[in-house]
From TrEMBL:
Residues 110-144, 153-176 have a biased composition (Acidic residues). It comes from the Archaea. It comes from Natronosalvus rutilus. This is UPF0212 protein NGM29_07320. Belongs to the UPF0212 family.
Length: 176
């Protein structure tokens, strides 16, 4: 099962005068700490509310110092439980964001979307196999074409896109 985990971070920012400046600096600072290792983590402004339900800006400024609420989203693949996904996300993000408090806000299971993708992937592959069989008959090199087709089939779908799009950039070198 795959899960989308949202983690809230309280990022301190120093020497700022406005909330917008604090938010920009906090996002930049967080991006520098996460990249290049975790460039797949999405950084968004956090949402804060008062006890009365009134929306507040994500930055709190006092004495030219700010505390900015940011939401960090990442997808965790092949986990057994939602708790496992939240632990992995906290560990991965927390290792790069030293001395910044983190709290898991939500864990969303993405399993339903993956099942639909798997079904369409299977249908696309059967069409590709049927097209390749026609080529095999005309070339009379069945064994060579089958091995070439086996190499191409898992990497291509009907749109011509490859499964390499699903691979994180830092792992592309390992697959080549």
């Amino acid at each position: 099962m795959h899960c989308r985990v949202v983690v809230e971070a309280a990022v301190p920012v120093f020497d700022v005068e406005t909330e917008d400046e604090a938010i920009r600096i906090a996002i930049s600072k967080t991006g520098e700490m996460l990249n290049p290792d975790l460039n797949y983590v999405e950084i968004n402004m956090g949402e804060r509310t008062s006890p009365g339900g009134e929306e507040l800006p994500p930055a709190f400024i006092a004495a030219d110092e700010a505390l900015v609420a940011l939401e960090l989203e990442m997808t965790v693949f092949n986990v057994e439980r939602e708790e496992h996904a939240s632990r992995i996300a906290r560990k991965e993000i927390g290792q790069r964001l030293e001395n910044i408090p983190l709290e898991v806000l939500s864990v969303t299971v993405l399993e339903d979307d993956e099942d639909e993708d798997d079904d369409s992937y299977t249908d696309d592959n059967s069409d590709a196999d049927n097209d390749s069989d026609v080529d095999d008959d005309s070339d009379n090199e069945t064994s060579t074409d089958e091995s070439a087709r086996d190499d191409e089939t898992p990497n291509e779908d009907a749109g011509g896109e490859t499964d390499d799009d699903d691979v994180l950039p830092e792992f592309e070198d390992l697959l080549e």
